[in-house]
Amino acid sequence: MVRTALDAATAAQEDGRELEVFDLRTLSPLDLEPVYESVRRTGRCVVVHEAPSNVGLGAEIAARVTEECFYSLEAPVLRVTGFDTPYPAARLEEDYLPDLDRVLDAVDRTFGW
Hints:
Blueprint: H1 2-13, H2 33-42, E1 46-52, H3 57-69, E2 78-82, H4 93-96, H5 100-111
Helix pairs in contact: 1-5
């Protein structure tokens, strides 16, 4: 999802928005301090990952960001994830994974609050 997030950051620049992308490749230890600093500065957070949204790492990140940065948030923490279905066969994978349009839609929604 890093490539998709970076593509979204590039596309958002055309609309005059600057997105920060964090690649949280390690889950243990989970270093969220740079994310907290960004949220405190920008007031927004969109979590993007391949897994379903239900009971995933994205939910944990969203919860921790909300706990640590609640008074800095200008919009709810949004998640862009795979769908809450079993992972599909390879030929359908591109329809399952978050794409550029879904990520940019979430970014736009954070500015709508």
